[in-house]
Amino acid sequence: MSHATETLLEDRVAGAAERFGQADVSDYFALLKPRVMSLVVFTALVGLVRAPADLHPVLGFTALLCIAIGAGASGALNMWWDADIDAKMSRTVVRPLPSGRVEPGEALAIGLMLSVASVLMLGLFVGLLAAALLAFTIFFYAVIYTMWLKRSTPQNIVIGGAAGAFPPMIGWAAATGTISLESVILFLIIFFWTPPHFWALALERKSDYARAGVPMLPNVLGDAETRKQILIYSVIMAAFGIAPTLLGYASLYYGAGAFVLGAIFVHFAIGVYRGGAKAHASRAARHLFAYSILYLFLLFALLLVDPMAR
After folding, report:
1. CB-based contact 309:48 (threshold 8 Å)
2. Can you give the C-alpha Rg of the chain in angstroms?
3. What angle do CA 292, 38, 26 make, to 5 degrees?
4. Backbone phi, then psi, for 29, in 5-degree steps?
């Protein structure tokens, strides 16, 4: 660890220590990973609205609320289990658990209660299939990914990324009571988006993951292999991005927009693949990571407003 990184980590720990044992509402809200939750809710909304069925607005709101609560529950369970490694990473050391503001038992209780409540509410008020998918998503993220894959394989984010890809399928199932090819395509877009998104960050945070003992791809197979995998997954993701138009359930307007967004994504991925000087490689990874968030939002926004998508 460099001296600058060590100093930054010490400063963040010292700042967090000032509020040790002094949790407030914002700390409990942070347990739910609100930024991740917002993306989950948005992609679920697209699945819900674009499904070929009319769901009463109250039921639609209830479905999205349950999905949001389920996502928050997953975040709380993730933070509960990962508190030890979060304490070793500069990006996560100020989270409520490693900083001591929230007790582990509190996070576990919140995660379990919200998990049960979200699944029961979705099943009782909306539909059993949607509730079953939500329950599986929470289990997959909290147990399969967090407790097993994350610490055991460099493919952790590939397999574990499926958890973040389920929300549009849950929204679709809430509206129709079924799973269809359209909802599977939405799942696959997010599934193939996840590795380049997180590996771009992992290239920048190698020392953090090494210190925490998390076998992210750059730490296990090296930067060159990670850059190659980023490019491969980016190309596949871009292809699935235009699939709704190719399969006839989105317009050419959406297809053109998806093509342009995907081409820009691949352009950034090529920049990462080429590597080059350390400063250039780092800048390329940061650009890809930042654009990847914008890409997913804009792609699903295009699908949301596309007149042919129903």
Report:
1. no
2. 20
3. 120
4. -70, -35
Residue 263 neighbours by CB distance under 10 Å:
11
pTM to 2 decimals? 0.90
What is the Cα–Cα distance from 203 to 189, expressed in whole angstroms? 22
The gap from C-alpha 206 to its chain's centroid, in whole angstroms, comes to 19
pLDDT band at 8 (very low <50, low <70, confident <90, very high): very low
Which residue matches tokens 């350390």?
278
DSSP helix/strand/coil, 233: helix
Cα 206 to Cα 52: distance, rounded to the nearest angstrom: 44
Tens-digit pLDDT profile for residues 233-254: 999 999 999 999 999 989 999 9
CB-count burial class (<10 Å; 0-12, 13-18, 19+) for 189 = buried
Q: 10 Å Cβ neighbour count for 84? A: 12
- Helix runs in the chain, H state only: 3-17, 25-30, 34-50, 57-81, 83-86, 104-125, 128-139, 156-160, 162-165, 167-176, 181-204, 206-212, 217-221, 223-241, 243-246, 252-274, 278-305
Residue type at position 235: V
Q: CB count, 10 Å around CB of 280?
A: 12
Q: Residue 209's Cα: distance from chain center in Å? A: 18
Q: Which of 29, 28, 34 is nearest to 102 (CA)?
A: 28
Q: How far apart are CA 97 and CA 95, in angstroms?
A: 6
